[in-house]
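#dry-run=false #mode=assembly
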Amino acid sequence: MKKRKRLSYAKYGYIFSIPFVTAFIIFSLYPTIYTAFIGFTDLKGLLKTSINILQDPFANFRLILNNASFKLSLVNTLKIWMINFIPQILLALILTAWFTSNHNKIKGQGFFKVVFYMPNIITAATIAILFNVLFGYPMGPVNDALVKTGVLSQAYYFLTDKSASQLIIAFIQFWMWYGYTMIILISGVLGINPEIFEAADIDGANDVQTFLYITLPNLRTILLFVLITSMIGGLNMFDIPKLFNLGMPGNATLTTSLFIYNQAFSGSYLYNRAAAASMIMFVIIAVLSIGVFLLMRDKKDVQEKKEARKLARQIRRGELHKEEATK
Amino acid sequence: MKKSNSVGRGAFRVFIYVFCIFLAILSLFPFVIMFINATRSTFEIQQNGISLLPSRYLASNYAVFTGKTFDPLKGFYNSAIISTGSTALAIYFSTLTAYAVVAYSWKMRQAFFSMILAVMMIPAQVTSIGFYQFMYRIGMTNNFLALILPSIAAPATVFFMRQYMLASLPLELVDSARIDGSGEFNTFNWIILPIMKPAIATQAIFTFVASWNNLFLPLILLTNNDKYTLPIMVSLLRGDIYRTEYGAVYLGLALTVLPLFIIYFMLSKYIIAGVALGGVKG
Amino acid sequence: MMKKTLSLLLVLSLLLGLGLTPVLAESKETINLWAFTDEVPKMLERYLELNPEFAAKYEVKTTIIATTDGAYQPALDQALAASGADAPDIYCAEAAFVLKYTQGDASSYAAPYKDLGIDVSAVETSEIAQYTVDIGTNPNGDLVALGYQATGGAFIYRRSIAKEVFGTDDPAEIGAKVGPGWDKFLEAAEALREKGYGIVSGDGDIWHAVENSSELGWVVDGKLNFDPNREEFIDISMLLKEKDLYNDTQDWTDAWFADMKGEGAKGIFGFFGPAWLINYVMAGNSGGTKAGEGTYGDWAVCAPPVGFFWGGTWLLASASSEKKEAVGELINWITLDSSDTGLQYHWANGTLYGEGGTKDTVASGVVMAKSDGSLEFLGGQNMFDVFVPANEFANGNNMTQYDETINRYWRDSVRMYTSGQISREEAVALFKQNVADNLDVIVE
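#status=ok
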């Protein structure tokens, strides 16, 4: 009886997944398999009516792996993502710590939380154009300010400087997304059982201790989400580099997505190579994600046990405190 | 000892405020520029892309925006249908899917969850073309459903909901609902969904914003005048290098962002106040 | 499975109240027009107003997709390939990609004008600018596309600076100072610098002229053709930079527009451009609306050192269209009709919607000859005097469907070189690497 009941519950796992799977198969899986298939064919040019699998099916993959621009784009993408993500997650964590602290009630924190997410509301196109104008040469707000304050003796052409362009793109990404990351983290903190915090509080833990030893470990699942989605988003970065300066100067802001787009749409319609590059990217992202997953999971078991012990200890102590207080 | 500590704390608070105000200015800056540019003429904007002084061309920019072959009100309506539809579907079905992964132990669940993650990793630029060709073949161009229905499978949202549930959903609640005789589907709709409110609010904002600002797919899927979304209309103002009406473009962008403000502020109470759901059960 | 999902879609669509587009019973025949701006759609609207008997039989259904993000071409390609009820009867192409539709990958979709009942000998009798015809002729020698504008370019210069430096502002004399050829142009630049002026605003200004000075396009027989005339762009740019002959601006940025108003680092003598640059860009950025305000009225046009054209829209008809005669009537009115009731006469004189509209150069020499192109902005000069010959010097045989991409790579390399980031060799190598990596073009 009991066994049958459990089985009948498992059934709901399947049933509740049906809508997702159906939509996924139609709108996602089919186009993806189609793409993967194209990678092995001779599909290029606009008017191709017949598609043939190449005699050497991996020719496109080999071409892409030997393509200097593709390799450069991989390096650029990882570089720009890391320059943006590390400060972004740190700032988001600090803001989360400030805004969720029980001792340090920040006045107007509602306002700040709402405002910090706002760069994410505007379209990427607007932001890219805005920054392009900001760094205009020989006249532009940034140059004007730097020359007037004597930092520079004459206007600098930021947009032809490779490092400067990469930094600007990374900054735009950072600035557009730290609020988003912060909101996610805060929502994660709000989901933690308040009793744990109360226990820590009674225990006399200060803000830093509470954050490091209570909040962070409990945020682990949400942190994993942030890390994985940001990595996937970062490795697929497209809008800002394309709209800011088309991967220029000298391909310094060419990301892999932009490279893939250029293969398909910049004149030769190399759909097959674009598809092959997409699949290579897919494999790279998957490997990295699995790596992150394993890294976080290995710790999970160990940590969970530790935490359970700590929690038990804290609660015990908390009760002790309570008893003392009632005395 | 205690005194110096509180002085240090006071200084620290001042630092926090200065820092946050600085970030707030940085965040609001593009909006200010956008709204100011909406009142400036195309040529003023070309001469100085960034200005803090409004001008007097709001009415003429509006005339340019409304004088085209499309109707911004209609665009507003279309955008609203698509964004509301896809947000509702994405939120509801993602929560349901995440619940299926978290609350039930079934054989395929780990494999299924891995698949969801894999879906998230597929680069979008090229598959969007496969998607477009497919939609074209089954006659779904100029049909909002082609933009709404795919939201049922929103892997990132499922992922978030799962992580959130793992951290914060007391499964004992489900058990007690079962004891009370509640059906599984009812439990989800009437007990789980309300608990997920804060997570739903955050994801609803993100999904709505992404859908509202989406340009590329609507641009190639909706070719009929009557079906244009607001971003498509704005993009049409800048379709030609030599006749870009920047004043009207900024006005269009400003009008596009206004509804997002409203939605965002409506939902932001969850971000601000935070319904701490750990407190549901003692 | 398929049936099930389809019925699911149907049910959902009914639930959402967004049913598939209803097919309306229409007695009129529909002509589908695809365009990337509302310029041509508005012309056809006007034609229907002016010709009620045509409007009684046909209606025009317009599809406008902006070229933003490269969205127009994939959608158009798909629509042409599918050739269903929504397939375009008439479609527009911009100079940047028209070659693909007339001579490149998509040329087989285009119907020859003669199959539309159009008398193509009107090309001669209307004196249609040759470069627009060259571009619009498919590999079989059939005419498949024509424009209504001609976008031959001139050198547009400041009268006051001309008087100060060269002692005259006469277009013929100034034309002889700045050209023909780049050597004379650079000589003039030296003379201007001595008085503290730059000859152009940035390297983008000379690019279109340099681009057009090549006999052949970027790609010949599948190989990159790095024409010496186009390679020279890197040296001319560096010369302009080293000798301080310009303001080092980038086209379409704030600093470039400021030079039209005369508010850059130093006064700028001139710009390279067709009539639309004067109408839509320079006039508005001159800082005035009548002579004496800003630089308004202080400009004139003369022959450029090297002939060129810049931009333009071409009209094509689909080979699968079932309304060829009606389509032909519309296309003929826009592209070949040189009478006083043709579109081009209205377009040249700015009278399509009544007096006082924007005057633009058109493809037909006959129309230009009988039209008045005098502009207050140019101090009353009749710009058609310069633009009619300018259209003859424009070359339509050196374009390829790769131009937008390859030009971008070359100009990026040159800009990095002139700003001192890389050496000349590195710039050329970077350019070749980019072409080889991103296009199906052999680079030697």
